Every structure is written in structure tokens, then in C-alpha cells.
Amino acid sequence: MTSAVQLFGGALGALAFVDIARRWGGPYPERLPSTIERRRELLEVGVLFALTAGAVTYPILLFRDVLSYNPVFASIGGQTFGFVFLLGALTAIVVPAVLELGVHGRSLADLGFRRPAAWRPTLLLVSVGVLFGLAPLAFGFSGTESAAALLLGLYTPVFKEEFLFRGVLQTKLERVVTQERAWIISGVLFGLSHVPNDFFGFFWVADGGDPIIALGRLQQTAKGLLYGLLFMKSRTLAAPIVAHYCSNKLALFVNSIWG
After folding, report:
1. N or C: which end of the chain has fewer CB within 10 A?
2. Is the pLDDT of residue 70 over 90?
3. pTM, whole model, 2 decimals?
4. Residues in contact with 218: Cβ distance below 8 Å, sequence separation at least 6, in sequence order
């Protein structure tokens, strides 16, 4: 089990790297074109966030027996996991992609599917992800996972979260507010999306309902700020995806291979 000291230490470390990235991560690239439909963009940000927050909260309510699984959903997703998997894909990937690519006519490059605009922030972000990923080994972490679980972890939560919060929400915000405000807001939203899990869901149960550890898990907000800042400066989703995955799974990968 991760201790509160490790979690708060991780949060402070992430915030320190945010400051380093702001100072030495290179300049901001040219800002994305502003939109005249500011209210619509902000409304869409709110709706997309609410949809993904609902998709996160729903399985937690099932898990905690607050809601009963509706058998009507069996025809859609088979088992509970199947429906939850489908729900997450729809709210975090399909709906945002249709909105941005289809309705707004934006390109994949606008959403971060491109080569890095600058290598310094890209390499800095990946290096930080590797550092956070290896840190648990220094505290005697010995957990392992199957190859299937490690592979699944690349899609969910990593790709889903990075595509939604960095590729879609942050770029939408950049068209409305300053670049600095855009990555700060997206980082805060990223942290807020973890609140149901940290204070009521799987992590809460695994941590024995300890509120101090739950607060420590809000290091996700600090990491969200870091991922957002360096995505802004690198313009490629590859950087936060690799960093996020390493931060989540690298220790498990090392133990599973050599443990």
C-alpha cells in the first residue's frame, strides 16, 4: 500500500517539476487560433467533463452497491465490465473525437497527433514520467501485473485521459483563455476527475478509508498540471501518454519482468 508520505512527496515533486518546466522547458509555441464562440467552447468543456465524470462515478456506485447493475445494459456491453468499458470509450474518446473532428472540423494534429514541436519539453516530460514510475521501487514496491493488464493500462486510463484532458479539453480552453490558464484549468479538471475514486471508490477502499491518504492521492492534480504544461510546449500527445504510462506502470512492468 502506498503511504501518505509517498503520495504527498509525489505531489510536491510534481509541483517542483512544474516550476522547472515553466522556467526551463522552453517557450510556448504559437497559440491555437482563438474562437469567436467562446461560450460554446466553454459549455462543451463542461459537458465533456461532466460526461466523463459520470462514466467514472457510475462503476464506483455499482462497486459500492449504491446502484444495482441494470440487466438492460447486458445487451449493450455483456457483463458489467463490458458496459463500463464501452461507456468510458464513448465519453472519453468517441464523443469528443466526433465533436472536434466532425463538428468543428479540427485536425488530428490540432489534438496532439503529431511530431513534437520542441524536443526539450518532450524529453523532460518523458524523463519525469520514468522517474515517478521507478520511485516506488525505492520503497520496496513488489507488485506485478499480467501482460494483458499492462497492455490494457496503456489504453485505460492513460490514452483515454490524455486524449480527453490534454488533446481535447486543453486545446479547447486554449482557444478561449491564455495558454497558461488553459493547462492550469485542464490540470485541475484532471485532478477533479479522480475525486470519486480517491474518496469513495476503489482507491478509497484499498486505502482502508484513510482520508489523509485520499488527500495525498490528489497528487494527480499536480501531475495533471505537469502533463498539461509540457503538452502545451511540445504539442504532441505522445509525451504525456508515455510519461503517464511510465508513472502508472513502470514499477509493475519492471517487477513483472525481473521480479
Report:
1. N
2. no
3. 0.92
4. 11, 191, 194, 195, 198
